[in-house]
Design goal:
The chain has 64 residues and is mostly helical. The chain has three helices and no strands. The radius of gyration is 19 Å and the shape is elongated. The model has no long low-confidence stretch (mean pLDDT 88).
């Protein structure tokens, strides 16, 4: 995740569920899910995987 607030939001939702309980904490859970779904993502391991030749010999079905 490229969003540093993502963990804070998820922990706040977890605490709301713990303290308030369900179904009252459904709103906090929904807000956390929406935040994570719309947060910017990072492809941090992509270059590492290329450097390690990850999937180099994989045969893609659409290539044949």
């Amino acid at each position: 995740m490229a969003d540093p607030q993502a963990l804070v939001v998820c922990m706040a939702a977890q605490q709301a569920i713990h303290f308030v309980g369900l179904p009252e904490a459904n709103l906090a859970l929904a807000q956390a899910v929406i935040h994570l779904a719309t947060a910017p993502k990072s492809n941090a391991p992509t270059q590492l995987m290329k450097d390690l030749d990850y999937g180099k010999d994989y045969k893609y079905a659409h290539d044949y």
